[in-house]
TrEMBL record:
GO terms for molecular function: transaminase activity. It holds the Pfam family Aminotran_5. Belongs to the class-V pyridoxal-phosphate-dependent aminotransferase family. It comes from Halobium salinum. Its cofactor is pyridoxal 5'-phosphate. Residues 22-280 form the Aminotransferase class V domain. This is Pyridoxal-phosphate-dependent aminotransferase family protein. Keywords: Aminotransferase, Pyridoxal phosphate, Transferase.
Length: 380
């Protein structure tokens, strides 16, 4: 129940014990098509350029930023969380200049601020984080943000690492040019092959670059040769991770993407109701609550790390502390993919209540009220 990796579904673990074939084996080539189709389904897109990038979410992130940002380009990035900062580092390494749209950690971007930043800086690329894992904030108003960017002829990159397969995201309908994700969050798959999708406009900007992308490994104009129509060798695909991703995406398709979004809202909603009824406070306002990552404020007088250690030692249960500006101030409780189940929420609430009570501080929580609120929210 941390910020990822989430629990892996048994079917995905089983798929990972499938014997290897070559990365150009006809059966593997067929599987690549299938994975691409399933990724399009999860991203809600028709984009031809939809692939798993070899590596973790940061690899698909760097593939997006490092290919789109050309030397001298300006990229607009957010300051309201940890991962906007990582976008900034990647854009700088790509030779870009970075400008900011500000919002405090724990709040989403305001479209009016984004519009002001566009008027002031005229960026070529705009990146935002749809589901900020460091703060538990979901960015609303995505179509509004993309239309501001497109009025200024900029391309939009969305970080959907903690939303894909868990929280509503619609690449085509919302006009997002590029979106990247990771497999080990709401897709409940081990890290290693990370979703990326680009529309034609974004891909033509990449293919028209005068100077090649600085990373050879992540150069999408070269990867095109393997994941595009040629299917010729670029690097050896992480075969086992592709098996795993395929199975994880099949589980998404079997459940139905909208049903899966609804399950995350329902189950994490019970978690949130339980935490609040116990007397704890969520970090994000209700309107921006992110079901897949619940940031809960650490009560005064409680040592966040001691509770985290207690949960791991006594209950074999993982949650995480805060990052950056929220270090020591929040616990981050994931509710992702296969982990988003009522029994996990019930276990978490009772264990967390015990862990806080065991801290010998003046703080006490109402465990019974928490369990009752959870059951009501689950409709039991
Ligand atoms: C986890 C995460 C990443 C980075 O993914 P890794 O798999 O750790 O490389 C990027 N963005 C967000 C929002 C994340 O939560």
């Amino acid at each position: 129940m941390g910020p990822g990796p989430s629990d892996v579904h048994p079917r995905v673990l089983r798929a990972m014990s499938t014997p290897l074939v070559g990365h150009l084996d006809p059966s593997f080539v067929e599987m690549m098509d299938e994975v691409q189709d399933l990724l399009r389904y999860a991203f809600r897109t028709e984009n031809k350029w939809t692939i798993p990038v070899s590596g973790t979410g940061s690899a698909s992130m760097e593939a997006a930023v490092g290919n789109l940002v050309r030397p001298g380009d300006t990229m607009l990035v957010p300051t309201n969380g940890y991962f906007g900062g990582r976008m900034e580092s990647m854009a700088e390494r790509a030779g870009g200049e970075v400008v900011h749209v500000d919002a405090p950690w724990g709040e989403p971007l305001d479209p009016a601020d984004v519009a002001d930043a566009f008027d002031e800086h005229q960026p070529d690329v705009f990146g935002f984080v749809h589901a900020e894992t460091s703060t538990g904030v979901l960015q609303p108003d995505v179509p509004e943000l993309t239309s501001i960017a497109h009025e200024h002829d900029a391309l939009v990159v969305a970080d959907t690492v903690t939303s894909l397969g868990g929280v509503e995201f619609r690449a085509d309908e919302w006009d997002v040019d590029v979106a990247y994700s990771g497999p080990q969050k709401c897709l409940s798959c081990p890290p290693g092959a990370s979703p990326l999708t680009l529309n034609d406009e974004a891909m033509s900007r990449v293919l028209d670059r005068e100077e090649p992308a600085r990373s050879w490994y992540l150069d999408l104009s070269l990867l095109e040769g393997y994941w595009g129509s040629d299917r010729s060798y670029h690097h050896t695909a992480p075969i086992t991770n592709v098996y795993a991703l395929r199975e994880a995406l099949r589980l998404v398709a079997e459940e139905g993407i909208e049903e899966r979004w609804a399950r995350h809202r329902h189950v994490a909603g019970a978690l949130k109701a339980g935490v609040e009824a116990m007397g704890l406070e969520m970090n994000a306002a209700d309107e921006f609550w992110l079901p897949s990552l619940n940031a809960v404020r650490v009560p005064d007088g409680i040592d966040d790390g001691a509770v985290i250690d207690y949960l791991l030692d006594r209950y074999d249960l993982e949650i995480a502390g805060g990052l950056g500006d929220l270090s020591g101030a929040v616990w981050r409780i994931g509710c992702m993919g296969h982990s988003a189940r009522p029994k996990n929420v019930s276990y978490l609430l009772s264990s967390l209540a015990d862990a806080i009570d065991a801290q010998d501080a003046s703080v006490s929580v109402d465990a019974d009220a928490g369990m009752e609120a959870m059951q009501t929210a689950l409709g039991e």
